[in-house]
Amino acid sequence: MQISRPAPGVGALAPRARLTTDAPQQSLAGSWRFRLSPTLHEAPENWRDDDVASWDEIQVPGHWVLQGHGAPAYSNVQMPFPVDPPHPPMANPIGDHVLDFVADDALLAHAEQIIRFDGIESAGEIWLNGEWLGSTRGSRLTHEFDVTGILHAGENRLAVRVAQFSDASYLENQDMWWLPGIFRDVTLLARPAGGIRDVFATADFDPEAGSGSLNLAVEAEGEWRVEIPELGVSSSGEPAKLTGLAVEPWTAETPRLYDVVVRAAGETVTLRTGFRRVEVKNTEILVNGSPIMLRGVNRHEHHPEKGRVFDAEWVRAELELMKRHNINAVRTSHYPPHPDTLALFDELGFWVIDECDYESHEFVMVDWRGNPSADPAWRDALMDRIRRTVHRDKNHPAVIMWSMGNEAGVGQNLDAMMLWTKQFDPSRLVHYEGDWSCRNADVYSRMYAGHEEVEQIGREGLSPAAAGLDAAHARRVTLPFIQCEFVHAMGTGPGGMQEYWDLFEQYPRLAGGFVWEWVEQGIAVTGEDGERRIMIGGDFGEAVHDGNFVIDGLVSPDREPRPGLLHYAATIAQVQIRVDTSRATAVVENRFDHIDLSGVDLIAERVVDGETVARIALETPRVAPRGSATIELPPELRDPRDARAADIVTVRALTARDSAWAPAGHEISSGQDAHLAAPVAPAASGDAADVSTGSGQLRSVGPLAIDAGPSLGVWRAPTDNDWGRLHAEEDPTPYAERWRRGGYDRAVTRIVSAAEADGVVRVHSRTGVPILDCAIDARMTWTALEGGAVRLDLEIEPDGEWPTEWARLGLDLVIGAAPRGASYLGDGPMSAYPDMRAAARTGWWSLADDELVVDSVTPQESGARQGVVDASVETAAGTLRIRALDAPFALTVSPYSRDELARKTHNWELEADGRTHVSIDLLQSGVGTASCGPGALPRYRVAPRAVRTSLLFEGRD
Ligand code: GAL
């Protein structure tokens, strides 16, 4: 087996489009025989005729490492073996796959047959009935081989030897699991006489004329004819150009598809085509003449049990979930997905950046020495990859850009790939992030550029004067800008999305971005205790790995939305509503690029003290794309307000009709005007509150015992983002590290004085950190009130030089019984932080015990609810009610202590201590996105400062 050549596979047919054909096909998916050898050297030479009855069975498509053979391995930039191109390591598992099968008569009835492999990682050698068909390179790329005369009636034997690593691994160092195997479909296809080998349909829409045209390049044997049945048009033979078609255009918002049927004597193929025109004008990306905004995510193919094996229902469900969260764009990071995914993008409506299966990021570790992008020896391999990418997917209207790959440096081979792509398919844009000269790209693309730089790029686009700029910059400045990756959805976060989005909305050049990434790529295994566990890098004994950096998605490995997804959905929502009851208006902004709001219903609701007092359907204003309108609120929704009440007016935008991805009535977004009146505290009872004058601790509130606290806390269990280096800052030290060095996690309190007089307990405490002389002076005044409540008046004053900002400033209390849930009046219902709260709405929310904190794969701080004015924390021992007498607070209720969260590296290792940990945070730092990208913006950091507030506590058993 030749696996040390910087070359494409051998023997495959020329790449072509994936076509839906009436020619017979036979899937070879199912149970195959399998044998693993630890090295190529140890893999038997003569194996193809072996009796395989004793071999293991394996499911194809499948990864052998997820079926009990060997183990998955996760690494990001670093290679798991020496960078010694084009050689794979000696320790290179070899998987021999054998399938004995009977070919369908329907296939054999035709003159010719081919076999198609849609994905083999990393290199395959293929034999049919002892004849060598060839080899594959490009794990996520399709290879077809001619089997005419080799495939025969009766029993056939297909034998495929797969190397886990090969020369191709140097081109496939994407940030993901190494998952070898025949993981996509294997199919036999009849090639009829008089058949159609390939079709390239370019379906254009002329926005000025309002009509479409179809340009068809067909490779067929003999005569052929094209029809668009729905339009009643047809044409025969080359050149096939149908013009002046009365079509509705395709957009991600209106994914209108037409069947295009191509008939030849021996075969009919059907494409689903959408008519649209993609172009760049005046630094904007236009589709059908209108600028578009990419509300995107980066999507890896990942399933917690199956890895990158395609599951049609699962993928449809995940794309529908994206649509329900206002996502309209996908970058297929970092390889073309399973071919059927493209049809789903077309049907559901996504703008797609289809990316070539190419990443050579490992070479950054060696200063890009020997990078394949620049080495002519790899040119054919790379050209083969881009050709296979473009050909396979060229008929999909969803694809608006071809991406050359990811993080592959710069070089002449990339240039050649871009030039070929442009010349082959001028109807789409060419994307590559890694070369900021943009000499061949049609868009300027970056990843994780900070807010300031993005603003600068946006501003530059307002008057793209080339004078005085170097050549690269002069070209770049004429291009639209996207962030092919921005905000890193790792752990609690990402923060700062809204601030990016505001810039994207403000500057026409900024055409949006793609969150990194859609799904947390955790692998599920069954632990010794029978429990399902999510595994991360290193859990399979890898010597080289990148730990939990693979867990950085908007949804969990099981596709459960993380709070970040909800906040992203609100940030990017195509309908934005601002309610102002004092003016009796709501501003409704239409952020769709191509449609008006006729598909949107507006429902307004007024809730006073938890009771719905009005629910009214508002007339949706006629608003053109990217326009806005102000509507008047009916009298029931206006002021005057009851000054003693919580009075909330919410206007929701709902889908008016069923769509492929949501039933009518699905909420797109909402806007609110909320007035929350502070409660009036009862009079003092004259009794003393149950506060220890020795420790300063609150011992009980009414019948409810308090185990510990309140103590002052300035630390949180570091989030993944807190561990991120702040690359763009003067001091790049991660906050988690700064807090640890500053001893913020080990703060201790000394009671300066505590005394009771006239039923009022006054406690002066000083909270400091080990080693340093900085402190917080806190003055707590406790007053028992009539009815059993306790009032706390709190004054906090920092003292000395705190070495860095606080994570928060909170009062921490512990109740000696497990949490049962919480209900509150405040913003929610989801976890939110000051720089990640777009989705939170004011209301009466109630949380079950398993909704209090986020079950992040890696334990960390989560679960804060913002803007809380009234909360009831339910525990097995009773309920603690906490009310804000002036400023709202952030509430976190957790079954885990912060130390426990900080100590454990997997959620399944967490041990609840049977107590309820309550934090009332008066200040909280934003979360930012420093796990990859900028930290919390300065305005969201918490410089030590004085705070005063008043709270009311009540206890119930
Ligand atoms: C980018 C890269 C992604 C991913 C991300 C961090 O640089 O393109 O593949 O590694 O960083 O999670």
Automatic annotation (TrEMBL):
Q: Which organism is it from?
A: Microbacterium nanhaiense
Q: What is this protein called?
A: Beta-galactosidase
* Its EC number(s): 3.2.1.23
Uppermost EC category: hydrolase
Q: Which UniProt keywords apply?
A: Glycosidase, Hydrolase
**Family classification:** Belongs to the glycosyl hydrolase 2 family.
User: Cross-referenced Pfam families, in alphabetical order?
Assistant: Bgal_small_N, Glyco_hydro_2_C, Glyco_hydro_2_N, LacZ_4
- What is the gene name? lacZ
**What residues form the membrane-spanning segments?**
none
